């Protein structure tokens, strides 16, 4: 009998129940018991939901209070020494300090680095290792959650991040070889697997997602060593799980590892099926990822069913499992809650629960004619979507077709533009600014909610926003920032806000997806051709500029980031949708310029996130991604300064593409890495201006003046003072006003100190 399984489930709850529990604990650690009780209730609810939807095998240990990679590092006692005293005294406080930093009494800890999980918008905490690293089993979380499910009557399958991928996703702080730690790590994995077997686990899902990346011979040796060692102990059966792409040249390796089953992603890589079937050992279970765990569209079952039947004919039903392509962490839980969407659009969508139901339909279609009605229903949904006039707009297609090379070129080269901009703005060395948003306080959120529910009149809401904007500008003037922003109090989310004003987008009420920690987003749904019916940001930027004589930045989210942080239609190439977004945003850029806004920031934090996982596919993606940014930005005059912002990305291997964007100023995250990310810009001799972040806004910790000065001195050691801006790592939306006030005052003072030091040297 073919089995329906799941690889992972969203953690936050349909109404983000985990978020307030986390934030209450962070503000008052006496709420620990309440947080743990909420977490337990969510796990129980989600196991039940998955079983009711049709999953015969559900995952456990996929739940996390912050991040599953952090959970693994903490479980393995891979805790940097500076956190150890706190972790020993208060394990939960120590756990969160790794993710968020800690600043209280005599404790002052930076958070660990955070970066994107492969090509998703989920962020993971990067484990920090060193050559003398030791490991031990500090916690028994996988065993405890397995027993918790068992007590509920559910024989769940524990999920572990595999040992090789754990090391490859980590960093060493001393330049040593991560994989050299494998021999010390494997005994701990062996101990854990033994404990899971003793607890009654029959199978363990062991995730090795790095197998879909370019791997070298050292990596291959590590995989072979790891699974040879783990094969020599009494343990549960292992399902080696890969996702986000094809195994490709790692298939022979994966099929030879001493495990008991293999999961492959047939959504991203359907063409690998025959090769996988040829390579699969006779006794192995094969798990097919046939519904998309990354996107929310209904599966074309007529397309998928032949793949399943082909596998079924080769290996039979007993060894065949049907699953999502990857964990369902990346999508919302249940589309049936979205009662405000049109019934037609809702019929095209499939969230977590519906993905499992689709798998059940596919399983039933293998064994019974009873699935014919469900298959026909799915077929009609596909037809409805293909034929909808709401999806296809000939005028948008015609405008894209009319683009030419000049539309992606600034009128003059950078040095000419730089001179024109310096003459216009007369900014000092180390000009100070912020990335865009200011704290979205409880009052701001409540006012927005009242306005949307009709409890606050439009005029009253406008007056409230004007007051918030005025206060924000006066604050920036008071502390001495050089280039101001309006604070973005009218905006809910940096993508959602724009999508709400563009044709071709739809929005959910409960479609929450975790980005990191308690931070959740409701990604817009791009279901049709995109165009801008009216200006989106001009009114508030122009109003803000009218309140001050200092330069005001207009703030936009770039086309690649809107694309990456939305659920994108899958009926045309992503490049085509991105081009439509670029043209819509180009109209906004030109309208901002016409309104007198001379500095315009087009944020592209997701540019690298969209990079294909295999290097051979990079050039094609970067060509169209960079082109779309340039289409957005290139219609302006020489003295209009274009900024872009990127955060939590490694730039070394795409620095040429970053330079090709031809932004006048780029701001990047560097505070957690202590300016390490600047190395790429130095080696490349990046010619334009750079704002390396000196304030980590993802932590409540407030850095001091000298700390910021130290970071800026590191920057001036490798870049000219005339190239450097001073700014936080990212927007300040999630921070409170007291910490924002203190941090930005320190930032401005640090810039003043740097100007004085440069003047003395000169």
Question: What's the quick description here?
Answer:
The protein has 762 residues and is of the alpha/beta class.
Structure notes:
L-homocysteine binds at residues 435-437, 488, 603. It is a single chain. With 762 residues, the protein is of the alpha/beta class. The chain folds into three domains: 7-78 and 113-124 and 135-288 and 295-386, Alpha-Beta Barrel (TIM Barrel); 79-112, no CATH class; 419-440 and 482-761, TIM Barrel, CATH 3.20.20. The strands form seven sheets. The chain has an eight-stranded parallel sheet with strand order 1-14-13-12-11-10-8-2. Helix 10 links the parallel strand 11 (237-241) and strand 12 (261-265). Helix 23 (574-594) packs parallel to helix 24. 50% of the residues are buried.
Task: Chart the SSEs and their pairings.
Blueprint: E1 3-4, H1 18-27, H2 32-53, E2 59-60, H3 68-75, H4 81-89, H5 91-100, E3 102-104, E4 107-109, E5 114-116, E6 123-125, E7 128-129, H6 141-151, E8 157-161, H7 163-168, E9 171-172, H8 182-199, E10 203-207, H9 217-230, E11 237-241, H10 251-256, E12 261-265, H11 273-279, E13 285-291, H12 301-315, E14 320-324, H13 343-347, H14 352-367, H15 372-387, H16 394-401, H17 414-425, H18 442-452, H19 458-479, H20 496-499, E15 503-506, E16 513-516, E17 519-521, E18 525-531, H21 538-545, E19 553-557, H22 559-564, E20 567-568, H23 574-594, E21 599-603, H24 618-633, E22 641-646, H25 655-660, E23 665-668, H26 678-684, E24 689-692, H27 705-716, H28 737-761
Helix pairs in contact: 1-2, 4-5, 6-8, 8-9, 12-14, 16-23, 18-19, 23-24, 27-28
Keywords: Amino-acid biosynthesis, Metal-binding, Methionine biosynthesis, Methyltransferase, Repeat, Transferase, Zinc
Cofactor: Zn(2+)
Domain Cobalamin-independent methionine synthase MetE C-terminal/archaeal: 430-752
